[in-house]
Design brief:
This protein has 276 residues and is of the alpha/beta class. The protein has nine helices and twelve strands.
Amino acid sequence: MIKDIAIHLTGSSEDATRIAHAAGLARVLDAHLTGIYIHQMPDILSITDPSGSAFLQRLVEQSVAQAEAATKALDSALGQLGLTYELRRLDLYPGEVGSELASEARQSDLFVGTRPYGDPNKGQWIEEAVLFQSGRPCFFLPPSFQGRSSYDNVLVAWKNTREAARAVADAVPLLKQAKSVVVAIVDEQLGAAEEQHRAPDEDIGRYLSRHGIKAEIHIIDGWTSTGAALRNEAVRTAADLIVMGAYGHSRLREWMLGGATRDVLNAATVPVLVAH
């Protein structure tokens, strides 16, 4: 069940998009909204005491004034939705943002933000941290997305992995509301399914049907790029939403999206619900 939706808020123009779509989800799912406003303090203040410098004191005052104005505007925007909500403000240095936002997201059922590699503030590492550290599904929007906040046609990118299974299970409440669900299975092994006498669509179709979800299964082959194949299928089926597992690899103890996940999140023109 999705009953608490966390929204990543930054005081930027993207906030209006995130709030609008989080509100649409909350209405469909009868959920509470938790706005998490991240006020990034000047990094220089983390390494020096501002009390001895008039310049640094002015920097602190400007930063606090900006945060207070943004908090007031965000509270007003959330209050006009007619939904139950709360607004939290976190005053953080840049290096703390990813882990602290992931920690906050754990207290919700779904995280809404701008997709990695589309954030106008170039803060993709923040969304990656939430995706890989929070243990919660993430609903990522294209930057400045103006599409509908209803998701009638959903494309599920299926692969028999833990990540994909998590994404499908997390998306069940939305899949039940959809008018059309297409499960896209990209054949990455060039006919291995037939050779091994297995039907890749049977199990996932059965799982969804037991949740009252009728889905079409599309087997896609002939593509060298799984991400491109999924994006093409999303366009071909007029999908309003893509559901997929998030894959990545560690690099110096940090996560980095790879393969199809990065491709879809980098270029998808519709929202993507991803889980790791």
